[in-house]
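Figure 2 data, in text form.
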Amino acid sequence: MKRAVTLLEIVLVLVIMGILGYIGVYSYHPNYLAQDSHFVLMQLLRTKYQGVNYDKRYASMSSDLNSSIGCIDLRDEEWNETAARLHYRLHSTIHNISGHDVLCFDRYGRAVFDDNLTRSFISSKQDILQLTYNGEDLNFSVLPVSGYVIISK
């Protein structure tokens, strides 16, 4: 004797699946602070590698000198413009805590707070940016000689 599935059983299974799906979708909360910190870190690393690949000493001998290569604008409003240009939406608030507007890297990867690389280099670990989202903070620091970027809470 074959037993068929009734319409009531199918509806009951679909209702249970709908409830579980509803709970699953609304319990997922993306970690916007981590996503935004990855975006900022990638922009800082991209700038560092551009500075390493572009030697301004030799470029100054020709008319090809571009002082913005290897430099990034640290102003708060500039980060939103950069994110919009790259089709990314920042959820965190970014604050420039360095007191300088521009961070540059020379051909050795060393960091300096001016696009005129004749200034003195960073002599100690320097906090440059702070990301804030829902009361949580992340600080970005640059090490003096290596130009490494460190993210800390």
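Caption note: The helical segments are 7-27, 32-53, 56-59, 76-85.
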